[in-house]
Design goal:
Elements (H helix, E strand, L loop, with lengths): L1 H73 L21 H31 L8 H12 L6 H16 L5 E4 L12 H5 L2 E4 L6 H66 L7 E3 H8 L9 H14 L3 E8 L2 E8 L2 H24 L2 H13 L2 H10 L1 E4 L8 H6 L9 E5 L10 H15 L5 E6 L8 E5 L2 H11 L2 E3 L2 E2 L1 E5 L1 H7 L14
Antiparallel strand pairs: 1-2, 3-5, 4-5, 6-10, 7-9, 7-12, 8-9, 10-11
Length: about 525
């Protein structure tokens, strides 16, 4: 029983091995069949592409040969309607002698044409030599045609006849020239024909030369197209680089503008807790604070564009000329928008309180005060305005040395002036006080000349009054008289403003021509 069991196990293993061999053989067979099928599927495509390639090469060769044959036929004369055979026309009644002469001359014309075409083609391909077939070569062609070693009488006559046919038929693509390269006509003598030479106007270039010329022409055109394409690419890259550079420069300019505005705003905010006069900053100091010394030369144009933009487009920043330590500087000063709106709202609320508070408080006292103000005479107003002005700060000192130190220094007197420190914004004057202050200053200025335009700056901390007088001498008189004087117990500082700067600050002053007077 044990041996029978082992025999069964052995037979089972053999059957399994046989099955696995059959399966592996079947799988190999299937793989072979699949590969064969794939090769059979690819072969028609390869055969088709090969046939296309062969046909293309054959067509190209046939085209070259056809062009070569056409060029040869174009140079060959024949019996056409335009042909002039001089002695008689073929097909008409001609003597046998003339017919033979024409046939002989035509055969020789063919030989001469072939030689002239080949010579011209070789010259065009090589670029060297002479295109003309000289008289010696023509005699050699005639001798070879008659198979003689010396120019016989018949060969000489046949050559002359062939040359006369070429002269009479210029459409045969051959030109007969004299020794001086002058085209011969029908009146040419025998001596002219014996020394003549022939130039073909239809050069016959060899196939190799034609292929070389075609390749050279195609390469030249491809090179030209490539050069134009490269030029367009370079132009496109240059324009794109220029646009990107301009955009990058524009971003840098506005980034610098943001830095400047932030710096001026921070300076103004800081000055509110200290001296309000410190809100004005010298323009070059702003540049030195924002641009490092190593970058100032490289960013000079960026800074200039940003400064120009702020001077022309930014309404919150005013460009002024201020005297600091006896020297004039161009400064920037931040003008907060809230100061104007707060002034307007405070004036409006004060007026509303005055109008509506009469019923709630003491309306009789308010009405009486208004009547008293309205009834004050013009003389009292003038007296009050004069009382606001005090003497000069140096009126009790003798000598001019100290006075010259206080007076403003300017090399260019102007008709435009600026008076500073006329009032303080802490507390802020009311609207009527501003009007009275403006009238008092205008009244004072009319004593030195005519005032064409004036402006009282009510929204800054400088306490400034701008004025344009009718002459530069009037401006000089005002500066000399009012600089260093007292106004409402405040020391007045006077300075010149150039006419260009004044017109930039107040464009409406350009057309001002009427002299102003206080109310």
């Amino acid at each position: 029983p044990a041996s029978a069991a082992r025999r069964k196990e052995t037979e089972a293993e053999q059957r399994k091995a046989a099955v696995s061999k059959v399966q592996s053989a079947g799988s190999r067979l299937l793989d072979d069949v699949r590969k064969t099928h794939m090769r059979s599927r690819r072969s028609p495509f390869l055969l088709q592409y090969g046939l296309h390639l062969v046909v293309g090469v054959m067509l190209a060769a046939a085209a070259v040969l056809l062009i070569h044959a056409l060029d040869q036929n174009m140079a060959r004369p024949g019996a056409g309607a335009q042909d002039d055979f001089i002695w008689c026309q073929l097909g008409d009644f001609c003597q046998q002698r003339d017919v033979e002469k024409i046939h002989t001359a035509m055969k020789l014309v063919h030989k001469i044409g072939e030689e002239a075409d080949n010579t011209a083609g070789k010259v065009e391909c090589s670029g060297e030599g002479d295109r003309a077939v000289k008289s010696d070569a023509l005699r050699d062609i005639s001798m070879n045609f008659f198979n003689v070693t010396a120019l016989s009488f018949n060969a000489k006559l046949a050559l002359e006849d062939a040359l006369r046919l070429l002269v009479a038929n210029p459409h045969w693509k051959g030109t007969v020239l004299s020794t001086h390269y002058v085209t011969l006509d029908r009146n040419a003598t025998v001596n002219d024909l014996r020394a003549a030479m022939v130039i073909s106007t239809n050069p016959m270039k060899p196939i190799k030369c034609r292929v070389h010329k075609a390749v050279h022409r195609a390469a030249s055109q491809a090179l030209l197209v490539s050069f134009l394409g490269l030029l367009l690419v370079v132009l496109f890259v240059a324009i794109r680089f220029y646009v990107q550079k301009r955009e990058e420069e524009r971003r840098k300019v506005f980034k610098m503008v943001d830095k400047i505005l932030s710096f001026l705003h921070n300076t103004h905010t800081t000055s509110l807790s200290g001296d309000p006069q410190n809100s004005a900053v010298i323009i070059t100091h702003v540049r030195d604070a924002l641009v490092s010394p190593a970058d100032r030369q490289a960013l000079a144009h960026i800074w200039q564009q940003a400064a120009d933009w702020i001077n022309q487009q930014e309404s919150r920043v005013r460009r002024e000329t201020r005297r600091i330590s006896g020297q004039d500087f161009v400064v920037w000063r931040w003008i907060p928008i809230s100061s104007y709106t707060e002034a307007k709202s405070s004036d409006a609320s004060a007026a509303a309180a005055a109008g509506s508070g009469g019923d709630e408080t003491d309306g009789t006292s308010v009405a009486a005060s208004a009547a008293h103000t309205a009834s004050r005479s013009f003389a009292e107003k003038l007296e009050h305005r004069e009382e606001q002005w005090g003497g000069h700060v140096l009126e009790h000192y003798s000598g001019d040395s100290l006075r010259k130190q206080v007076l403003p220094l300017s090399e260019k007197p102007s008709c435009c002036i600026k008076l500073r420190n006329l009032y303080s914004i802490q507390p802020r004057p009311s609207a009527s006080e501003f009007e009275e202050l403006e009238a008092a200053v205008l009244h004072k200025l009319t004593q030195y000349g005519g005032v064409l335009h004036c402006f009282l700056d009510r929204w800054t901390d400088e306490g400034a009054f701008y004025a344009k007088l009718n002459t530069a001498d009037a401006g000089t008189s005002v500066i000399a008289a009012l600089h260093g004087t007292w106004f409402n117990s405040r020391l007045v500082k006077a300075e010149y403003i150039s006419l260009t700067e004044y017109h930039r600050l107040f464009p409406s002053s350009r057309s001002a021509s009427k002299i102003l007077f206080p109310p």
